[in-house]
Amino acid sequence: MSAHEHRFRLFSSVEYEGQLYMTPLDFIESVTMSEPKKKKFWRSLSKQDLEKMLSDTPPVWKGSSRFFRNLREKGIISYTEYLFLLCILTKPHAGFRIAFNMFDADGNAMVDKREFTVLEEIFRKKNDKKERGGDPDSSSQLSVELYGYQGSASSAVLKKDQPQFEPRSFWDVLKQGAKVVLFSDLVEHVQENITDTTLLVHFFGKKGKTELNFEDFYRFMDNLQTEVLEIEFLSYSNGMTTISEEDFARILLRYTTVDNISSYLENVRQSIPDEKGITFEEFRSFFQFLNNLEDFAIAMQMYNFASRSIGQDEFARAVYVATGLKLSRHLVSIVFKIFDVDHDDQLSYKEFIGIMKDRLHRGSWGYRGEERFTSFKGCMKKELAGK
Questions:
Q1: Which end of the chain is more exposed for a tag (fewer CB within 10 A), N or C?
Q2: Least confident of 12-16, 124-128, 364-368
Q3: Taking the CA of residue 234 as centre, how many other CA atoms within 13 Å lie in the half-sphere pointing to its CB?
Q4: Residues near 337 by Cβ (< 8 Å), separated by ≥ 6?
Q5: Which helix (H) or strand (E) holds 279?
């Protein structure tokens, strides 16, 4: 079982016709917590239960950055949609148009329900039981739990006259999927009777006839990123408008494979005796920058090729050139205080890029750190436990 498959099964809490689903609350927990707050028992839904649950789903033009928190347990998210949402969390805004165009197979600047489910077939292909290997019976059972049936209806189409493709990420899956959609008859092989989910109703209406335009698609993706960041920020702000520089460092490092987090935090304590705090706008801009990390890494490597060290001014300029974002001088200074482990006021590729690349794998594993973040869990419980 892959890391994503394991995490989806760990956090999913409902089952419908043999297929596992997450609720919106399950999804939020899966990307903001190391483990479920309580042991999950899969609750079986009837058709009436599902219809009543989905009746509270708002249309896409009424979406907000509290979409998942407002729905809580009144909705379902399939495994392929879970992969899609994880993909969104780490993509730069500049990539939103590319993602939309990938779904828009006929090029009419609108995405309909059928086009959206075609790309879901690509995700199914990525996780086909034949590619997973292992015990055939276990793989078949897992395929039923995640997809509702064994294998993928699109497998034969995808393999026909297509070179073998080994995607490195789910973004690669989308890109490869767009090519397949444009140059094959895959659309004719999509299941007709797909179970309606929260996202399908949100995007395409209760009857599935609504079409999704780019503006609404962009707003949904931006709201999702903002919602997760708001939850993380609120978990440390304690009702204030800022979080401490030390807590900012904790949030950055808990998604990484850094073993000596305490030494990084001590670095911050010693170099920033007087707290100024990090605002939500600074917090949000930094994570928008991290979603552009690949482009920024190219700029950093150019400095390395020229044998030039990276000071704070060079860092800020590289961020702006690569992403168009202007980070505050205070935020840049904090980043240097966290990652400049040798205290030379310069930032190396290894000191920053190598660690921050781990950050893009959010959702694949739980937090790592010097503590279990009880305050974070307490805030999560308060934030999500009731209206």
A1: C
A2: 364-368
A3: 15
A4: 245, 267, 268, 271, 272
A5: strand 278-279
Strands 242-243 and 278-279 come out as antiparallel
| For residue 48, pLDDT beyond 70 | yes
The pLDDT tens digits for 305-351 are 655 667 888 888 888 887 888 899 999 988 888 887 777 777 766 66
Contact by Cβ (8 Å): 376, 235: yes
The enclosing H or E element of 84 equals: helix 79-89
Residue 113 contacts residue 208 (beta carbons within 8 Å): yes
Instruction: Return the closest-CA partner of residue 202 out of 61, 13, 81.
Output: 61
DSSP state letter for 196: P
| Cα–Cα nearest to 122, from 161, 89, 167, 77 | 167
Structure-derived torsion over alpha carbons of residues 279, 281, 287, 289, reported in degrees to the nearest 10: -120
**Which residues, other chains included, contact 58 with Cβ-Cβ below 8 Å and sequence gap of 6+?**
67, 202
Distance, CA of 80 to CA of 126 (rounded, Å): 10
d(CA 69, CA 182): 36
Query: Is residue 368 within 8 Å of 261, Cβ to Cβ?
Result: yes
Q: How far apart are CA 191 and CA 114, in angstroms?
A: 9
d(CA 353, CA 293): 8
C-alpha span between 387 and 382 (Å, rounded): 10
Tokens of 190: 């999509």
154's tokens: 């699109």
pTM for the complete prediction? 0.77
Angstrom distance (rounded) from CA 19 to CA 188: 23
